[in-house]
Amino acid sequence: MKEELRYTLLSDGSSDKALQYVLTWLLREHIVVNCAIQSEWADLGRLPKPPKKLPDRIKKSLELYPCDLLFVHRDAEKEPRQKRVDEIRKAIESDEKSLSVPAVCVIPVRMQEAWLLFDEKAIRRASGNPGGRQALKLPDLAKVEELSDPKNILYTVLRQASELGPKRLKKFNVNEKVHRVAELIDDFTPLLALSAFRALEVDIEQAIEKFGWSK
What is the pLDDT of residue 214? Predict the structure, then answer.
């Protein structure tokens, strides 16, 4: 029986490391991996010459952050989700011999912030004003994949929830607060209503079943 499952997240940018909370929840709470879970975010930006091409970034991530399972993140943005999947698969296949662990695509539609726009309580707590009275106009969860700029919407809602004045808002670290929202969400089950999240769930389930990591 495997005692520990280590995974590494290779993401588009540093703000996307918040996806670790989503991935760990899927593994621990929904898929029910019967072992301890350790996660790492591949911080390639700290390197003197960070690799730019995706195949090189994948290879370097595995060198610096050894793991049992690799998650490769790309936001869909304005592209169809399948196009991003194809890009990641092509990068993996270009040097498949060096890829010693299974890889799973993580592709929110359109951006990872769309997956954090459903939990008003977490947003209010992350803003530092859990008892705030400011009405928050969160988008309908069923339509968040249609939003053109979910990042801007989440930033706006966090600022509104803080109820800070203009001067104090200048010191409001919204990037830090986004990470805090993800940390404070206890249950990502509502996201199963979204096609991209369901696809991620299926891919993870297939990977852990293939390698016998489930109960």
Answer: 77
